[in-house]
Write the C-alpha coordinates for this entry.
Amino acid sequence: MIDEVGSLATRSVVAIGGGHGLAVVLRALAGQVGSLTAVVSVADDGGSSGRLRRDFDILAPGDLRRCLSALAEDPMVAAAFEQRFEQGGLTGHPAGNVILASLLRLAEDPVDALDTAATMVNAQGRVLPAAQEPVDLVATTTRGTIRGQVAIRESGGIQDLRFSPAAPRCSPQVCDVIRSADTLILGPGSLYTSVLAAVVPEVAAAINDRRGPLVYVANLSSERGETDGYGAAEHLAAVRRHGIEPDLVLVDASSNEALPVDGRIARFGLVGATDGEHDPQKLRAALSELFS
Protein backbone atom coordinates (compact mmCIF):
# COMPACT_ATOMS: atom_id res chain seq x y z
CA MET A 1 0.00 0.00 0.00
CA ILE A 2 2.83 2.39 0.78
CA ASP A 3 3.99 2.97 -2.82
CA GLU A 4 0.62 3.07 -4.59
CA VAL A 5 0.26 6.86 -4.81
CA GLY A 6 3.73 8.10 -5.59
CA SER A 7 6.20 10.35 -3.80
CA LEU A 8 5.51 12.16 -0.56
CA ALA A 9 5.37 15.51 -2.40
CA THR A 10 2.20 14.48 -4.24
CA ARG A 11 0.31 12.96 -1.32
CA SER A 12 -2.55 14.18 0.81
CA VAL A 13 -1.46 13.45 4.37
CA VAL A 14 -3.52 13.47 7.57
CA ALA A 15 -1.63 13.43 10.87
CA ILE A 16 -3.60 12.43 13.97
CA GLY A 17 -2.70 13.00 17.62
CA GLY A 18 -1.83 15.90 19.86
CA GLY A 19 0.81 17.58 21.96
CA HIS A 20 4.44 18.05 20.99
CA GLY A 21 4.55 14.81 18.99
CA LEU A 22 1.97 15.92 16.43
CA ALA A 23 3.68 19.31 16.13
CA VAL A 24 6.94 17.52 15.23
CA VAL A 25 5.18 15.61 12.44
CA LEU A 26 3.70 18.84 11.10
CA ARG A 27 7.07 20.60 11.16
CA ALA A 28 8.53 17.63 9.31
CA LEU A 29 5.92 17.69 6.55
CA ALA A 30 4.93 21.37 6.20
CA GLY A 31 5.56 22.42 2.61
CA GLN A 32 6.69 18.91 1.68
CA VAL A 33 3.39 17.23 0.75
CA GLY A 34 0.50 17.85 -1.60
CA SER A 35 -1.84 18.69 1.26
CA LEU A 36 -1.45 18.38 5.01
CA THR A 37 -4.18 18.18 7.66
CA ALA A 38 -3.86 17.72 11.43
CA VAL A 39 -6.69 16.05 13.36
CA VAL A 40 -6.05 17.15 16.92
CA SER A 41 -7.09 16.01 20.38
CA VAL A 42 -9.19 18.54 22.32
CA ALA A 43 -9.16 16.69 25.65
CA ASP A 44 -6.47 18.69 27.50
CA ASP A 45 -7.69 19.81 30.93
CA GLY A 46 -4.51 21.20 32.47
CA GLY A 47 -2.73 24.55 32.55
CA SER A 48 -3.96 27.34 30.30
CA SER A 49 -6.22 25.02 28.28
CA GLY A 50 -7.92 23.76 31.42
CA ARG A 51 -8.53 27.28 32.70
CA LEU A 52 -10.02 28.42 29.39
CA ARG A 53 -12.18 25.30 29.13
CA ARG A 54 -13.59 25.87 32.60
CA ASP A 55 -14.12 29.60 32.08
CA PHE A 56 -15.71 29.51 28.63
CA ASP A 57 -16.85 25.91 27.95
CA ILE A 58 -14.79 25.71 24.74
CA LEU A 59 -12.57 23.11 23.13
CA ALA A 60 -9.16 22.86 24.75
CA PRO A 61 -7.04 25.21 22.60
CA GLY A 62 -3.50 24.18 23.59
CA ASP A 63 -2.80 21.35 21.15
CA LEU A 64 -4.64 23.21 18.38
CA ARG A 65 -2.36 26.19 19.00
CA ARG A 66 0.78 24.06 18.86
CA CYS A 67 -0.28 22.68 15.50
CA LEU A 68 -1.00 26.13 14.08
CA SER A 69 2.37 27.34 15.30
CA ALA A 70 4.09 24.33 13.69
CA LEU A 71 2.41 25.13 10.37
CA ALA A 72 2.87 28.93 10.48
CA GLU A 73 5.01 30.08 7.57
CA ASP A 74 6.56 33.05 9.41
CA PRO A 75 8.71 32.04 12.42
CA MET A 76 7.87 35.31 14.20
CA VAL A 77 4.14 34.61 13.94
CA ALA A 78 4.75 31.11 15.31
CA ALA A 79 6.77 32.58 18.19
CA ALA A 80 4.04 35.13 18.90
CA PHE A 81 1.42 32.37 19.13
CA GLU A 82 3.64 30.49 21.57
CA GLN A 83 4.56 33.57 23.65
CA ARG A 84 3.33 32.98 27.21
CA PHE A 85 2.23 35.92 29.35
CA GLU A 86 4.25 36.19 32.57
CA GLN A 87 2.33 38.85 34.48
CA GLY A 88 -1.12 40.33 34.92
CA GLY A 89 -4.47 38.65 34.49
CA LEU A 90 -3.24 36.57 31.53
CA THR A 91 -0.33 35.02 33.42
CA GLY A 92 0.30 31.49 32.18
CA HIS A 93 -1.70 31.82 28.96
CA PRO A 94 0.08 31.58 25.58
CA ALA A 95 -1.11 34.34 23.27
CA GLY A 96 -2.33 31.76 20.74
CA ASN A 97 -4.60 30.17 23.33
CA VAL A 98 -6.25 33.52 24.03
CA ILE A 99 -6.77 34.18 20.31
CA LEU A 100 -8.23 30.72 19.78
CA ALA A 101 -10.50 31.08 22.80
CA SER A 102 -11.92 34.26 21.27
CA LEU A 103 -12.41 32.65 17.84
CA LEU A 104 -14.01 29.53 19.35
CA ARG A 105 -16.47 31.69 21.28
CA LEU A 106 -17.39 33.72 18.17
CA ALA A 107 -17.70 30.92 15.61
CA GLU A 108 -20.74 28.68 15.44
CA ASP A 109 -18.52 25.85 14.17
CA PRO A 110 -15.05 25.18 15.66
CA VAL A 111 -13.82 24.25 12.19
CA ASP A 112 -14.57 27.80 11.02
CA ALA A 113 -12.65 29.20 14.00
CA LEU A 114 -9.61 27.08 13.19
CA ASP A 115 -9.73 27.85 9.48
CA THR A 116 -9.75 31.55 10.37
CA ALA A 117 -6.78 31.07 12.69
CA ALA A 118 -4.94 29.14 9.96
CA THR A 119 -5.45 32.08 7.61
CA MET A 120 -4.14 34.47 10.28
CA VAL A 121 -0.86 32.56 10.59
CA ASN A 122 -0.65 31.64 6.89
CA ALA A 123 -0.56 27.98 7.87
CA GLN A 124 0.97 25.46 5.47
CA GLY A 125 -1.85 23.04 6.15
CA ARG A 126 -5.17 22.70 7.92
CA VAL A 127 -5.91 22.07 11.60
CA LEU A 128 -9.14 20.28 12.54
CA PRO A 129 -10.45 19.31 15.99
CA ALA A 130 -10.98 15.60 16.65
CA ALA A 131 -14.34 16.52 18.22
CA GLN A 132 -16.81 19.35 17.89
CA GLU A 133 -17.46 19.56 21.63
CA PRO A 134 -15.34 19.52 24.81
CA VAL A 135 -14.14 16.02 25.67
CA ASP A 136 -12.93 14.44 28.89
CA LEU A 137 -10.76 11.34 28.98
CA VAL A 138 -11.74 8.39 31.19
CA ALA A 139 -9.33 5.52 31.79
CA THR A 140 -9.59 2.12 33.39
CA THR A 141 -6.39 1.56 35.34
CA THR A 142 -5.02 -0.87 37.88
CA ARG A 143 -6.01 1.73 40.49
CA GLY A 144 -9.59 1.98 39.24
CA THR A 145 -11.31 4.51 37.00
CA ILE A 146 -9.42 7.78 36.48
CA ARG A 147 -10.97 10.84 34.83
CA GLY A 148 -9.19 13.74 33.15
CA GLN A 149 -6.08 14.09 31.01
CA VAL A 150 -3.78 15.37 33.74
CA ALA A 151 -4.84 12.69 36.24
CA ILE A 152 -4.52 9.92 33.66
CA ARG A 153 -1.08 11.12 32.59
CA GLU A 154 0.13 10.57 36.15
CA SER A 155 -1.81 7.41 36.99
CA GLY A 156 0.10 4.54 35.35
CA GLY A 157 -1.30 1.07 34.91
CA ILE A 158 -3.64 2.20 32.14
CA GLN A 159 -5.68 -0.59 30.59
CA ASP A 160 -8.08 1.24 28.29
CA LEU A 161 -9.18 4.73 27.36
CA ARG A 162 -12.64 6.06 26.62
CA PHE A 163 -14.40 9.41 26.41
CA SER A 164 -17.02 11.55 28.10
CA PRO A 165 -19.32 12.02 26.29
CA ALA A 166 -18.87 8.46 25.09
CA ALA A 167 -19.30 9.38 21.42
CA PRO A 168 -18.44 13.07 21.04
CA ARG A 169 -19.68 14.81 17.91
CA CYS A 170 -17.19 15.11 15.05
CA SER A 171 -17.20 17.35 12.02
CA PRO A 172 -18.08 15.51 8.79
CA GLN A 173 -15.01 17.23 7.34
CA VAL A 174 -12.78 15.35 9.78
CA CYS A 175 -14.17 11.96 8.79
CA ASP A 176 -14.08 12.80 5.08
CA VAL A 177 -10.46 13.94 5.09
CA ILE A 178 -9.36 10.83 7.01
CA ARG A 179 -11.20 8.44 4.69
CA SER A 180 -9.90 10.07 1.52
CA ALA A 181 -6.27 10.74 2.51
CA ASP A 182 -3.43 9.12 0.58
CA THR A 183 -1.57 8.59 3.86
CA LEU A 184 -2.49 8.68 7.55
CA ILE A 185 0.08 9.18 10.31
CA LEU A 186 -0.67 8.36 13.95
CA GLY A 187 1.74 9.46 16.69
CA PRO A 188 4.22 10.01 18.14
CA GLY A 189 3.31 11.54 21.49
CA SER A 190 1.92 10.71 24.90
CA LEU A 191 0.23 7.43 24.07
CA TYR A 192 -3.06 7.73 25.92
CA THR A 193 -3.40 11.44 26.63
CA SER A 194 -2.36 12.78 23.20
CA VAL A 195 -2.32 10.07 20.52
CA LEU A 196 -5.28 7.88 21.48
CA ALA A 197 -7.03 10.95 22.93
CA ALA A 198 -7.60 12.06 19.33
CA VAL A 199 -9.09 8.71 18.30
CA VAL A 200 -12.68 9.32 19.41
CA PRO A 201 -15.19 6.77 18.06
CA GLU A 202 -16.01 8.59 14.80
CA VAL A 203 -12.32 9.20 14.11
CA ALA A 204 -11.59 5.52 14.79
CA ALA A 205 -14.36 4.48 12.39
CA ALA A 206 -13.00 6.79 9.69
CA ILE A 207 -9.46 5.42 10.19
CA ASN A 208 -10.75 1.88 9.79
CA ASP A 209 -12.58 2.93 6.60
CA ARG A 210 -9.44 4.54 5.17
CA ARG A 211 -8.34 4.50 1.56
CA GLY A 212 -4.64 5.09 2.17
CA PRO A 213 -2.14 3.37 4.48
CA LEU A 214 -1.79 4.20 8.17
CA VAL A 215 1.73 4.73 9.48
CA TYR A 216 2.18 4.52 13.25
CA VAL A 217 5.24 6.48 14.42
CA ALA A 218 6.29 4.71 17.60
CA ASN A 219 7.55 6.67 20.60
CA LEU A 220 11.27 6.58 21.28
CA SER A 221 10.84 5.66 24.94
CA SER A 222 8.35 5.21 27.74
CA GLU A 223 6.86 8.23 29.49
CA ARG A 224 7.12 8.46 33.22
CA GLY A 225 3.76 7.87 34.88
CA GLU A 226 1.72 7.26 31.73
CA THR A 227 3.63 4.41 30.08
CA ASP A 228 6.24 3.21 32.57
CA GLY A 229 8.01 0.14 31.20
CA TYR A 230 6.60 0.44 27.68
CA GLY A 231 8.71 -0.33 24.64
CA ALA A 232 7.61 -0.12 21.03
CA ALA A 233 5.77 -3.45 21.34
CA GLU A 234 3.68 -2.24 24.28
CA HIS A 235 2.88 1.04 22.51
CA LEU A 236 1.75 -0.85 19.41
CA ALA A 237 -0.28 -3.33 21.48
CA ALA A 238 -2.18 -0.44 23.10
CA VAL A 239 -2.97 1.08 19.70
CA ARG A 240 -4.27 -2.28 18.49
CA ARG A 241 -6.19 -2.82 21.71
CA HIS A 242 -8.10 0.36 20.93
CA GLY A 243 -9.18 -0.94 17.55
CA ILE A 244 -6.54 0.58 15.26
CA GLU A 245 -4.35 -1.64 13.05
CA PRO A 246 -1.45 0.23 11.38
CA ASP A 247 -0.20 -0.79 7.94
CA LEU A 248 3.35 0.20 8.84
CA VAL A 249 5.18 0.88 12.10
CA LEU A 250 8.04 3.39 12.01
CA VAL A 251 10.58 2.87 14.81
CA ASP A 252 14.00 4.26 15.62
CA ALA A 253 16.93 2.30 14.22
CA SER A 254 18.35 1.79 17.72
CA SER A 255 15.37 -0.37 18.68
CA ASN A 256 15.96 -4.09 18.33
CA GLU A 257 12.54 -5.10 19.60
CA ALA A 258 10.67 -7.77 17.73
CA LEU A 259 7.22 -6.43 16.88
CA PRO A 260 4.20 -8.58 16.00
CA VAL A 261 3.86 -7.05 12.52
CA ASP A 262 6.40 -8.98 10.44
CA GLY A 263 7.29 -7.25 7.20
CA ARG A 264 5.58 -4.02 8.21
CA ILE A 265 8.33 -2.40 10.27
CA ALA A 266 10.58 0.40 9.04
CA ARG A 267 13.64 1.38 11.06
CA PHE A 268 15.32 4.77 10.65
CA GLY A 269 17.43 7.03 12.83
CA LEU A 270 14.84 9.39 14.30
CA VAL A 271 16.29 10.73 17.57
CA GLY A 272 16.67 14.49 17.85
CA ALA A 273 19.08 16.62 19.83
CA THR A 274 16.80 16.27 22.86
CA ASP A 275 16.79 12.66 24.04
CA GLY A 276 13.35 11.11 23.73
CA GLU A 277 12.12 13.48 21.01
CA HIS A 278 11.91 12.87 17.28
CA ASP A 279 13.93 15.09 14.98
CA PRO A 280 11.65 16.70 12.33
CA GLN A 281 14.30 16.57 9.60
CA LYS A 282 15.09 12.91 10.27
CA LEU A 283 11.39 12.07 10.35
CA ARG A 284 10.89 13.90 7.04
CA ALA A 285 13.77 11.98 5.48
CA ALA A 286 12.38 8.66 6.73
CA LEU A 287 8.89 9.35 5.38
CA SER A 288 10.30 10.63 2.08
CA GLU A 289 12.30 7.43 1.61
CA LEU A 290 9.31 5.27 2.50
CA PHE A 291 7.16 6.96 -0.14
CA SER A 292 9.78 7.52 -2.86
Observations:
- The radius of gyration is 18 Å.
- The chain has a mean pLDDT of 94.
- The beta strands are 12-17, 35-40, 126-129, 136-141, 144-147, 158-164, 183-186, 214-217, 248-252, 265-268.
